[in-house]
Every structure is written in structure tokens, then in C-alpha cells.
Design a protein that fits this description.
This protein is mainly α. Helices cover about 35% and strands about 5% of the residues. β1 and β2 form a beta hairpin. The structure holds heme C.
């Protein structure tokens, strides 16, 4: 009897499946990024990738981030998925282009990243091979590492995600919702110019005009109240009766979740933080729709 007990195989390290609460938190944070919509081509299958991005680097296509084992990230460990999200490295060591905004997502709290991964594993797998990127010579080996080291502003993760008020709004804006990737002007090197954080870009991602959302009363959104900003993030309705279009419409609507699914408290926190950033005068023309 004793022998039998002694011979019992060591219990395999138990992988506890994530709780329903963790998956829900992951879906919520996924929505707070705008639904990772770059990974979903318009009218395409959620997270299956293939959306095309052209830039000075050449052409890349977003990756399949569904849990398909062959063509998606289903065969990756949690750690590998987190490393790709925040450090821009694939399991084989290959660098991702910062079209996937890892210098921003690096500021996400560990617990939020883990929850996002738990949620991603619950989504429908789609078998769809990634399209190879076409980069200008030496971009990946020489320019990208130098650029990352010299120019890319990198967010620092907090030990725990702030839960309320202006710090919560700042965290969501800077590290999760990546508002700056679209709304912050860029320097000559194409890095975001955070000395003019959220001051708008006449020709932002996908060549769309990105409004100035600093509190400047004339060229920004200084005349919008906190409630109006919070409403807009939930509904897309502007104070003047217009509705959000283009990429803003996409991040509000999201894919499997979006900004519209943020709680009123989080939308208010975002609006409150926006009121605290320096107003910057920068007139951006009306977007062409
Ligand atoms: C993927 C790009 C993208 C991201 C990310 C993004 N926006 Fe926008 N945003 C836009 C575009 C494009 C418009 C213009 C939409 C239109 O004209 O209807 C816009 C419009 C706005 C407006 C209306 C401004 C005006 O003057 O009409 C506000 C406010 C705003 N965004 C806030 C935010 C906040 C806050 C975040 C982050 C929580 C954010 N945006 C993230 C692309 C983006």
C-alpha cells in the first residue's frame, strides 16, 4: 500500500483554466484597445488578420491572432503572446513592426495582458495563413532596432492597473486605447511627438485626418464638457449632432468589443484625463469622408 502511494506518478503541474471573471476582464480590456481592429479587415472575420499597412518601411499585413494552432497564436504560450503584445517579438525572435503599437502596449499592467490572452484563447479559431511582409532592404535588421532605441517613446507598466479617476484615464489613454497612435503628430522619423501629445495629425494612419483632442478651445476639444467626451466614446455622437466616422467609428464600435463597451466610469476617467493635458494650438482640417 505504502509502496503504491510512493510510486504514484508526480502530479503534473496543473494548468488552471482562467476563471470566467478573468475572461470577462480580458474581453473588457480587448474592447478598451478599440477591439484590436487592425487585426480585422473591414467585414472580415474577427482577429483573422490580413489588413494591409503601407509605410516608409514597405508593406505589412496584420497577423492572425485567433487561437488557430497552425496559422494563429493557438500554439503559443501565454508568455509568448504577451511578449509579442508588449515587446514586439515573435517566438522565433523576429521583430514586429511598431504598426502593432508595442511601445504603447508595454505600459499595460501584467494582469491586464494576462486577461487579454485568456480572452483571446476563447475566441473562434480561423485558419488563415499570414501574408508575408515586404520591407525595404535592411529595415528590420538595421533601421528598426536603431529607431526603437533612439526615438520610440516607450510606456512603463504600472505594478497594478489604476482603478479610478484621472490615473485610470491616463492609463487607458496612454497604454491601452492607444489614442496617441492616431491623434499625436509624428516627428520626421515617424515616432509619435509626445511633446505635442494628442494635438492631431492631418495625415494619420490610413491617411485619415486625426483631430486635435487637446483642451485647446479653438483647435482642440476644449469646449466639450467631460460628459460630452464620455458620451462620444460610448455612442459616437458629437455635441454638434455629427457622428464619429472613419477609424474613430471603428474603435468605438470595436470588433468583439470596443470603446463603446467601456463603463461610464472609465469613459469619464478618460475625459477627465483629457482635460488635464496641455492645450496645444494646431488646426486640423475637416476629415474627408
Ligand atoms: C485608430 C485611430 C484612432 C484611435 C486609436 C483613436 N481615435 Fe479618436 N478619432 C480618430 C479619427 C479618424 C477621428 C475623426 C472622426 C470623424 O471625423 O468622425 C477621431 C475623432 C475623435 C474625437 C472627436 C474630435 C472632433 O473634434 O470631432 C475625439 C474626442 C476623439 N477622437 C477621442 C479619442 C480618444 C479619447 C481616443 C482614445 C481613447 C481616441 N480618440 C482613439 C481616430 C482615432
Amino acid at each position: 500500500m505504502c509502496l503504491l502511494v510512493a510510486w504514484r506518478a508526480p502530479v503534473a503541474a496543473q494548468v488552471t483554466p482562467p476563471s470566467a471573471a478573468e475572461v470577462a476582464r480580458g474581453r473588457y480590456m480587448f474592447g478598451a484597445t478599440g477591439g484590436c481592429g487592425c487585426h480585422t479587415p473591414p467585414k472580415g472575420q474577427p482577429n483573422a488578420g490580413g489588413r494591409r499597412y503601407d509605410g516608409p518601411y514597405g508593406t505589412v499585413f496584420s497577423s492572425n491572432i485567433t487561437p488557430d494552432r497552425q496559422t494563429g497564436v493557438g500554439g503559443w504560450t501565454d508568455e509568448q503572446i504577451i511578449t509579442a503584445i508588449r515587446l514586439g517579438r515573435r517566438p522565433n525572435g523576429e521583430r514586429l513592426l511598431p504598426v502593432h503599437p508595442y511601445p504603447v502596449f508595454n505600459g499595460m499592467a501584467e494582469e491586464d495582458l494576462r486577461a487579454i490572452v485568456a480572452f483571446l484563447r476563447t475566441t473562434s479559431p480561423v485558419t488563415k495563413a499570414n501574408q508575408p511582409k515586404k520591407l525595404i532592404p535592411m529595415f528590420e535588421s538595421v533601421f528598426l532596432p536603431a529607431w526603437l532605441a533612439a526615438f520610440a517613446p516607450r510606456e512603463t507598466p504600472p505594478p497594478k492597473a489604476p482603478t479610478a479617476g484621472v490615473p485610470r484615464g491616463e492609463y487607458l489613454i496612454r497604454a491601452v486605447a492607444h489614442c496617441g497612435e492616431c491623434h499625436t503628430p509624428r516627428t520626421m522619423t515617424m515616432a509619435t511627438d509626445n511633446s505635442r501629445f494628442l494635438a492631431g495629425n492631418p495625415k494619420g494612419p490610413e491617411d485619415q485626418a486625426m483631430p486635435n483632442i487637446t483642451p485647446d478651445p479653438e483647435t482642440g476639444i476644449g469646449k466639450w464638457s467631460v460628459e460630452e467626451i464620455a458620451d462620444y466614446l460610448g455612442s459616437g455622437n458629437k455635441p454638434d449632432g455629427d457622428v464619429a466616422g472613419g477609424l474613430m467609428g471603428e474603435v468605438i464600435e470595436g470588433t468583439l468589443a470596443g470603446y463603446k463597451d467601456l463603463t461610464p466610469a472609465d469613459r469619464t476617467a478618460i475625459a477627465q484625463y483629457l482635460k488635464t493635458i496641455p492645450p496645444i494650438r494646431n488646426k486640423i482640417g475637416k476629415p474627408v469622408k
